[in-house]
Amino acid sequence: MVLDFSPVFAITTGAWNYSFATLKRTRECVIAIPTIDLLDRVVGIGTCSGADTDKFARFKLTAVPGKLVKAPLIEECLANIECKVVDLVDKHNIVVLEAVAAYEDPGRKEKRMVHAVGDGTFIVDGRRIDRREMMASKLPAGL
Fold first, then answer.
1. In Å, what is the CA distance from 111 to each residue of 34, 76, 97, 122, 129?
2. What's the pLDDT tens digit per position in 26-44?
3. Rounded to an integer, what distance in angstroms lies between the CA atom of residue 55 and that of residue 51?
4. Taking the model in full, what pTM does it have?
5. Which domains does the chain carry?
6. Is residue 90 very low, low, confident or very high in pLDDT (cuts 50, 70, 90)?
7. What angle do CA 10, 12, 15 make, to 5 degrees?
8. I need a labelling partner for 69 at 20 to 30 A (CA). Which of 23, 27, 106, 133 fits?
């Protein structure tokens, strides 16, 4: 969930999720952004727990050290965002994150990202349409 034009966004999770305890303890994470060619691995990753599974080994993923956080980036993903936890909204299980570094693999051929709907279905990005010039007066400088 994007919060504004700053590099701050939020995710929802909770105590039922093994990663939640890690987020609370370390106050950092990496958001890895997969593409459609990784969908079956993404579903597999989401349907097992890091409490008893080495997901990097099981799904043949390459861990890349982060520069500003201890959590690893995933080499196979289109992009990775190193994040610091800036707030926890316990009432709604919302974790507010600030991006402290971001990386994209410009040489990756597949660029269509996949988005979970939440009911076992997914939406895939299509063609990108650029209207930044038309919206320039409403966008922050440097965006």
1. 9, 12, 24, 15, 14
2. 999 999 999 999 999 999 9
3. 10
4. 0.86
5. 8-138 (2.30.110.10)
6. confident
7. 135
8. 106
